[in-house]
Amino acid sequence: MLTRDSGRTIIIIFLILVVTVLYAALAPIASAQESTGFAKSQSKTFQLFPNPKFLNCFAASTSKPPTATVVVTPNNLNDTLTLSVKGLKP
Questions:
Q1: pTM for the whole thing?
Q2: pLDDT in tens, 19-58
Q3: Confidence of residue 3 (pLDDT cuts 50, 70, 90)
Q4: 45: which strand partners?
Q5: Dihedral of CA 46/52/53/58: which sign?
Q6: Distance CA 48, CA 15 (A)
Q7: CA angle 22-27-28, nearest 5°?
Q8: 12 alpha carbon, distance to own chain's centre
Q9: DSSP state, 9?
Q10: How far apart are CA 88 and CA 49, in angstroms?
């Protein structure tokens, strides 16, 4: 059985993994956009969904699974990634 601390550790590891995967996935896109003249002012939004086998670990409710929305906004020097998560255990 998971303790409260180990549950938080799993959530933190999950979020770090998500950000790392996003960074790895978006880095080539950013360099491709610069070389193709893609407009830098466009934001990209997409959804993340949990792996069903981990739902019991971090879902706050069994009837409503957690969701995450990612918005990536390009800027001149640095891009901004906004990660909004709902439905996680406290």
A1: 0.51
A2: 777 677 766 655 555 554 445 568 999 999 888 888 888 8
A3: low
A4: 71
A5: positive
A6: 11
A7: 120
A8: 12
A9: H
A10: 12
Q: Looking at the DSSP assignment, which residues form a beta bridge with residue 83?
A: 70
Both structure tokens of 38: 């893609």
Extract the runs of DSSP E, i.e. beta strands, from 1-90: 44-48, 67-73, 80-86
Contact status, residue 70 vs residue 82, Cβ threshold 8 Å: yes
What is the pLDDT averaged over residues 56-64? Answer: 85
Residue 38, sorted as left (phi over 0), alpha (psi -120 to 50) or beta, turns out to be: beta
Position 81: which residue type?
Answer: L
Distance CA 6, CA 32 (A): 40
- Is the model's pLDDT at 60 over the cut of 80? yes
Structure tokens at 7: 């549950």
Question: With 0-12 CB in 10 A as exposed, 13-18 as middle and 19+ as buried, what is 35?
Answer: exposed
